[in-house]
Amino acid sequence: MTRRLPTVTDLVVAPAVTRRLENVTVRMPAVTTLRTAGAVTRPLENVTPPAKLVLSLFPGVDLFGEAFRLAGCSVVTGPEKLFGRDIRDFHGVPGRFDLVIGGPPCQDFSSSRRGPPSGLGVEMLRHFLRIVAECDPPAFVLENVPRVPDVRLDGYQVQRFDLWDAECGGRQLRCRHFQYGDRRGWICRPKRQPVTPRGTVRGAVTRQVAVAMASQPWQNGRSFRDHCRAQGLPGSFRAPGLRKRALWWAIGNAVPLGMGLVAAEAVLAAGPRDHAADCLCGCGRLVSPRAVTATAACRKRMERLRRGGAPGTPGRRPVVTWP
Ligand SMILES: C[S@@+](CC[C@H](N)C(=O)[O-])C[C@H]1O[C@@H](n2cnc3c(N)ncnc32)[C@H](O)[C@@H]1O
Predict the structure, then answer these.
(1) For the chain, what are the domain ranges?
(2) Distance (Å, whole) CA 320 – CA 175
(3) Ligand 1: which of 145, 253, 257 to mutate, most ligand atoms within 8 Å of CB?
(4) pLDDT (tens digit, 9 = 90+) per residue, 252-300?
């Protein structure tokens, strides 16, 4: 069977540039349909805005990175100890990334820690800041437990806000703190869901399933499928290269996917601070006219700040910096 190949006369093209290839004249689409930038030309309809390039540090099973992927970013994962790579041997590439994200190990700052802190928590926070400084992105996001120290890096203004799983559609009694650093001083405004008629997160989750995820998750009597689902994953989730117990642990240590998505969307929509509309405590909530704080918890936070003095002074969270 012979198939008829299209001839030049079969091609319907705008009148335009012609180019001679061997003996065949190929007619090219008219220049007017192309966007020209110097010598580079591309059809307009094929041009989509480039995705933001994100470097995800301390990825674990990378649910935090996955949230940014779902929000439309291109995510590159950094070294992960579970897979035999150490962040101490890693260096950032300057000027390539739009965003550096990461959730360093939180055991030293966790309220369930029994012994003295190992020092690893602060060391890993400093490696996170070192790599941000090396990559020099416009913004970074650090995710951790509520007791994590404040991070500071020259050239960035840092907003600290918390998210409860129930505010993000989840069913866990789980709160994470996010520190968003932005060179322009912009802030994020996470879209939290109202959780109870009384407006308390605790009330909402006690009526649902409160779960302890991270410490010994395989001992709390729940199935692996439920463990996955509580984190926003399908029950059949697997990570090649991880044995079952390591997988339980890595999933339990991850940012719940729904929470990650709320944080990622807020980060991607960050904008300049509006002193009249934004809550003074930096939580990213909007305030009603003439108010300065959004909730009773925000007022308490501001009161604690006033009483505690400047960051790093006694009674305040410690501060970790780089260098
Ligand atoms: C809190 S978990 C990160 C969870 C992750 N953000 C997610 O959402 O799935 C911290 C991770 O840091 C990894 N880690 C700890 N020390 C490390 C090191 N020295 N180098 C690389 N990764 C390390 C741990 O193995 C763990 O998976």
Answers:
(1) 53-273, 276-305
(2) 21
(3) 253
(4) 999 999 999 999 999 999 999 999 999 999 999 999 988 999 999 899 8
C-alpha distances in Å from residue 26, one per residue of 9, 12, 33, 76:
10, 11, 17, 40
CATH fit for domain 53-273, picks 3.90.1030.10, 4.10.220.20, 3.30.420.40, 3.40.50.150: 3.40.50.150
What pTM, to 2 d.p., does this model score? 0.82
Q: Which long-range contacts (CB under 8 A, 24 or more apart) does 304-307 make?
A: 305/281
Pair 140, 99: CB distance under 8 Å:
yes
3-state secondary structure of 24: strand
Atom of ligand 1 nearest to the CA of 251: 9
Look at residue 214 and tell me whether its pLDDT is greater than 80.
no
The CA angle 133-136-141, to the nearest 5 degrees, is 80
* Dist. CA 305 → ligand 1 center (Å): 31
Which of 66, 68, 81 most suits a substitution to test ligand 1, by most atoms within 8 Å of the C-beta? 81
The pLDDT of residue 218 is 61
- State which ligand 1 atom lies nearest to the alpha carbon of 144: 1
Band (88; pLDDT cuts 50, 70, 90)? very high
